[in-house]
TrEMBL record:
GO terms for biological process: transposition. One of its GO terms (molecular function) is transposase activity. Transmembrane segments: none annotated. It comes from Megamonas funiformis. GO terms for cellular component: cytosol. This is IS30 family transposase. Pfam families: HTH_38. Residues 1-19 form the Transposase IS30-like HTH domain. It comes from the Bacteria.
Length: 105
């Protein structure tokens, strides 16, 4: 099976042992188990209303995400996270176009 799928034999053995029920393997139940494990594996988000309001307020005051991130050192919120929140629309009323653009020298 491993050669046919171009996978290492231990990968196949691990998949079978992880998703075997009463010595049978069912791909549907294996996929459902995968989805359950995947859903429970993520860590909690740092996003909340307090962060949202604070970040939105600072962005409206023309702070950059880098400046906000540096001001919130104790909360360990990266500027990339702030950009991601802006990009996916978690920060209401803020878009990437509203951020001040730096000019090249």
């Amino acid at each position: 099976i491993a050669k046919f799928l171009h996978r290492h034999h231990s990968t196949i053995a691990r998949e079978l042992s992880r998703n075997k029920f009463e010595n049978n393997y069912c791909s549907t139940s294996a996929h459902n188990n995968y989805l359950k494990r995947r859903k429970n594996s993520s860590h909690s988000s740092k996003y909340n209303d307090v962060f949202s309001n604070l970040i939105s307020e600072k962005l409206h005051e023309n702070w950059s995400p880098e400046q906000i991130s540096n001001a919130l050192l104790n909360d360990k919120l990266s500027f990339k996270t702030i950009y991601n929140w802006i990009y996916i629309g978690k920060l209401k009323g803020i878009s990437l176009l509203q951020l001040d653009q730096k000019c090249k020298k």
